[in-house]
């Protein structure tokens, strides 16, 4: 049997007002902090640029390119996104509107049973990127060709995943569909955000 309510007990309306007040106070105190939501992607036409077309063609020899999108997390950038034929590496042609296009390769690593993931990225970006967290290892090879970039990326992965041990990472498979590639791209953008 439920005890009778006292006149001092809060009503649902009282609780709702208190929750709204607490939320407003929290929002005010944390307004300076960035709250990244999941990135959203919009279909885009490939840039009509000979350099982008050449990079796309070179990357398509080793990868299946499944999407051409823009992203709210990177305004002014068109991404040709796919997966290398190994099934484990996110392959991108990154075409910013204000600087030269480049190729980027990223592989996700897990260390079971821990839930966190690491990423190994190798790119040919000519300028330095913003700082990244430690779990997002990046090596830049400015102006490198796609075969050179791929070879170096595979060398880095071999160095990270070689040797027996319970803490050795495993590569995570990327579903070879547009949705799978966009999901991997979203995960990547969340992991490298600082």
Structure explained in plain terms:
This protein is an alpha+beta fold. 31% of the residues lie in helices and 28% in strands. The chain contains four helices and eight strands; from the N terminus they run αβαββββββαβα. Strands 1, 2, 3, 4, 5, 6, 7 and 8 form an eight-stranded mixed beta sheet that branches. The longest helix is centred in the first third of the chain and has 18 residues, at 12-29. It is elongated, with a radius of gyration of 22 Å. The N and C termini lie far apart (53 Å). The mean pLDDT is 86.
**How many DSSP helices?**
4
How large a portion of the residues is in β-strands, by DSSP E? 25-35%
Helix fraction, binned, reads 25-40%
| Helix and strand pattern | HEHEEEEEEHEH
Layout of strands and helices, then pairs:
Blueprint: H1 12-29, E1 41-43, H2 50-60, E2 63-71, E3 74-84, E4 89-96, E5 102-110, E6 117-123, E7 136-140, H3 146-161, E8 170-171, H4 178-192
Descriptive key words:
194 residues, alpha+beta, 8-stranded mixed beta sheet, 4 helices, 31% helix, elongated
